[in-house]
Queue: 2 jobs
Job 1
Amino acid sequence: MILKSQVEWVLHCCAILSALPENKYLATKDLAEFHGVPKEYLSKALQSLSQAGLLVSTLGPSGGYRLAKSPSDITFLDVIEAVEGNTPTFACTEIRQKNPCRPKGYCEPAPCGIARVMWEADEAWRQSLRAVTLTDLSRMLTEGVPPALLQKSFEWIMART
Amino acid sequence: MILKSQVEWVLHCCAILSALPENKYLATKDLAEFHGVPKEYLSKALQSLSQAGLLVSTLGPSGGYRLAKSPSDITFLDVIEAVEGNTPTFACTEIRQKNPCRPKGYCEPAPCGIARVMWEADEAWRQSLRAVTLTDLSRMLTEGVPPALLQKSFEWIMART
DNA sequence: TCCTTAAGGATAAAGAATATCCTTAATTAT
DNA sequence: ATAATTAAGGATATTCTTTATCCTTAAGGA
Ligand code: FES
Ligand code: FES
């Protein structure tokens, strides 16, 4: 059980977009090149973020994506669920109903205890991811990085907005 | 991203094995029949639990599996990791190293902030699963179930040990 | 000696993740 | 107007994982 590689991609993309000035857009092509990932496939992931209301897109030259809201209003969980969906990581198939001793038509006390434990763990995971915003992300990704590299990267991005 | 169906299977199997008297074994065939799942494939999962030191197996007629230790010493996480492995659910591919502005040979402050957040969430998930033992499981799976059904199921199992 | 069982290897089928290509419509630059 | 650029989305291909079955071997019990 492993998250899609797209999750890493879009989180890094969000970090870039967080640094963009208001009403500036950055194209998929540039985000793909910056991160060394396939443009077409990254595009699918960004479309998901757009549909989830996290990004705003615009067409034509100088088009691309920007954040739909303040970085402080977008959490890791928002981004991850946009790509992975929000279905629980544990799917109960109700195998308890296969119990050969079960009376026909018997109705189990719902939901199964196992599923409850699994869903609680799932919620702990989500809660942890809800607690981190793109603002936190920007801070984390910049600290300890040489100012010269940050500056150069910023200019690389700005040259393409 | 979804857990293997085997996870649900083996957790239910562990609940059954928890109810077994000391030094009694239950065969894969019976566990598979009780839960209505394919015997051969369930067998692979039980082998994993055995290799993880959670179950003890014995051969021949009246052979099968029993718990290797007290139900209170086996957690959900133990069982799940035996089946799913213990690799983190987020795999960082270090795409930050693809940054075109990065000086050749530059060494990033390890690990990436994104990976740290993801691994922390992963740990929250694991912590939640570590807090529940097979003893808790037995209680959860029996409460609210009619005593007659519990009794009948117990007899079904005992008849095959 | 015969039957039952776990262990484990080989293989196949189904599904999900990864990736590419192409068309369409909107927007901008010329 | 025209041409270039871009996101959106459909179709399809490839690879990997999950799910499943089959078969052989060795151990244990009747
Ligand atoms: S029946 Fe699905 S987890 Fe118990
Ligand atoms: S480089 Fe992998 S998560 Fe940042």
Note: Residues 2, 25, 27-29, 43-44, 46-47, 50, 57-65 of chain B lie near DNA strand C (CB under 10 Å from a C1').
Job 2
Amino acid sequence: MKKKRVQEKIKARSVPFSQTRSRHASETAEDYVEAVLDLIDEKGECRVLDLSRFFNVSHVTVSRIVKRLNDADLLYTQPYKPIELTDKGYKLAKKSKKRHEIVLAFLIKLGVDKANAEIDSEGIEHHVSPSTLDAMKKFLK
Amino acid sequence: MKKKRVQEKIKARSVPFSQTRSRHASETAEDYVEAVLDLIDEKGECRVLDLSRFFNVSHVTVSRIVKRLNDADLLYTQPYKPIELTDKGYKLAKKSKKRHEIVLAFLIKLGVDKANAEIDSEGIEHHVSPSTLDAMKKFLK
DNA sequence: CATAATCCGTAGCCATTGCTACATTTATAC
DNA sequence: GTATAAATGTAGCAATGGCTACGGATTATG
Ligand SMILES: [Mn+2]
Ligand SMILES: [Mn+2]
Ligand SMILES: [Mn+2]
Ligand SMILES: [Mn+2]
């Protein structure tokens, strides 16, 4: 086969990797808004240190990310004040949480023990296309 | 509930995130050795530019990562020479490829179209515990 | 063998996400 | 109210993975 053809064939396989990188780029935002939603729900408010404990990272890491998500209009933060979700952040949180719950329930129904299902679903949720999510929903019914 | 108890409860939920970060840290190595294995198999040899096309990133990004994986004893590289796998790299590649194939076959059997299954499995493969992999294997039988 | 094309390395930039150390603000306790 | 504790912010470092620009090495072409 011609060299060019071989190269094009190789390049054609790059799509899943580009997509995976793109999904990883949105992962932090999704996990953070979901965490803020949960923490407000369970604790009444969400603080930097709550997120720091929730993710097991330093408060500095959280503080920087929260600032970026504030700039992205996903949440609202003021110095030394609790963190709140914007409308946009709330919608993303609800959608991410729903998807996460489906993935978790799916794994459990598939026969995975709860501990592993919780661990695996935390990563898998960000790599599930609408098509795959549909297939999981059908399996759950 | 006491404040301390609440904080411990929050901290307890951090395990999946720590695990997910750890898995993302091994993802590049897994994808690269798998790619080297495939490219040698299909093209006869694996070059920096092959990987650059395969992943759709610049040759500089590939070159830096290849150097790190060389230091980690996963592959063997010399300037301007083709890239080869070490024993350790070959073993990791085989294992990763096997797991990837199972995840892909699983998604297809679940009813996901091939294009989405290929995209999603590229990310999901790195978040599948032995427990989940077993469940997928059982489902395939 | 000389020239052109291709491949690859290096320098240097940016963004993200992890960290420790230290400063400042806010809340709690006395 | 003041001292202490807790929470948060800031400075600055490292690793990783993107990039462009440029130059040197290798290979192909004539
Ligand atoms: Mn989640
Ligand atoms: Mn997650
Ligand atoms: Mn992958
Ligand atoms: Mn992932």
Note: Chain B has a mean pLDDT of 97.
